[in-house]
From TrEMBL:
Positions annotated to bind Zn(2+) 1: 52, 54, 108, 126
Gene behind this protein: gloB
Natural source organism: Fundicoccus ignavus
Annotated protein name in UniProt: Hydroxyacylglutathione hydrolase
All residue ranges annotated as the Metallo-beta-lactamase domain in the record: 11-164
Superkingdom classification of source: Bacteria
Length: 238
C-alpha cells in the first residue's frame, strides 16, 4: 500500500493511493497523465476523492469517467454534480481496506473538505500546504482558521498530501517575517535548502507531516484569528 503523485499543470499534485492492484485518485485536475499512470502500473480505479470545486482539482473527472465509467466519486456539496456520494464533516466511509474520515476545512472554498485515512494519511487539497495554507477566496477567514486548528490537533505522525508545490515560496515568506527566533530561523533555512535540492531534481517536496508543520508553518501555529488574518494578507501580497 502506497501513495504516489502525478504532476499536473505548473505545480499541482494529483495523489494516487494504491493497494493490491487498485487505486484511489485524489483531485484529478486533468486526466491524461493519471490515466497513463494507472494503465502503466496495471491499476484498476476504485474511486475518486474531490476536496473542492476549483477546476485544477476537478477538471479531469469527466475524462477519467470516460475511461473508467461508473467510478464512485466522493466529494462535498459544492461538487455535487460530479459525485456519487456527497460527504460532509464527520462522515466516514471505507476504501481499499481503510476507513476515511471527512473533515470540513473551508475558507479556500465554502465547502472544502479534507480526507483522513486510518493509515494516518491526510489528503487536504488546498486547505493546508507545507509551510502555508490556501488563499481565503471566500473571505471567511474564521472558517479557514478553524480548519487549520482542526488539522493542528492531528497526531504528529499524520502524513500530509497537499495539492500544490508551494513549499519553497512559503518558506521564503516565513523567513521574511520579523517573528523569527534563532532556532526557528535555522530550521526554516535548513528546510528550504532541502526543498530546493528536491525540486531542482524535479522531485516533490511533499508529503510533509503534521509534526514537521508544527515547526515551520506559521499559519497552522497562529494562536488567534487576528494573527492568522494578518499572516494570510501578508502572504497574499508576498
Amino acid at each position: 500500500m502506497k501513495v504516489t503523485y502525478v504532476k499536473a499543470f505548473n505545480d499541482n499534485y494529483i495523489w494516487v493511493w494504491e493497494s493490491a492492484g487498485r487505486a484511489v485518485v485524489v483531485d484529478p485536475g486533468e486526466a491524461v497523465n493519471v490515466v497513463a499512470y494507472l494503465k502503466a502500473e496495471g491499476l484498476d480505479l476504485e474511486a475518486i476523492l474531490l476536496t473542492h470545486k476549483h477546476d485544477d482539482h476537478i477538471g479531469g473527472v469527466e475524462d477519467m469517467l470516460a475511461e473508467y465509467p461508473g467510478t464512485p466519486i466522493y466529494g462535498p456539496s459544492e461538487v455535487a454534480s460530479l459525485t456519487t456520494t456527497q460527504v460532509a464533516d464527520g462522515d466516514t466511509f471505507d476504501l481499499l481496506g481503510q476507513t476515511v474520515k471527512v473533515m470540513k476545512t473551508a475558507g479556500h472554498t465554502d465547502e472544502h473538505v479534507s480526507f483522513l485515512t486510518s493509515e494516518s494519511w491526510l489528503f487536504c487539497g488546498d486547505a493546508l500546504f507545507s509551510a502555508g495554507c490556501g488563499r481565503v477566496f471566500t473571505g471567511d477567514y474564521a472558517a479557514a482558521y478553524e480548519g487549520l486548528q482542526k488539522l493542528r490537533t492531528l497526531d504528529d505522525a499524520v502524513t500530509v498530501f497537499a495539492g500544490h508545490e508551494y513549499t519553497a515560496t512559503n518558506l521564503r515568506f516565513a523567513l521574511s517575517l520579523d517573528r523569527l527566533s534563532n532556532g526557528v530561523e535555522d530550521l526554516l533555512h535548513k528546510t528550504l535548502r532541502e526543498v530546493e535540492a528536491l525540486t531542482a531534481k524535479g522531485e516533490a517536496s511533499l508529503p510533509t507531516t503534521i509534526d514537521r508543520e508544527r515547526g515551520i508553518n506559521f499559519f497552522m501555529m497562529a494562536d488567534s484569528l487576528d494573527e492568522f488574518i494578518q499572516l494570510r494578507q501578508k502572504r497574499d501580497n508576498f
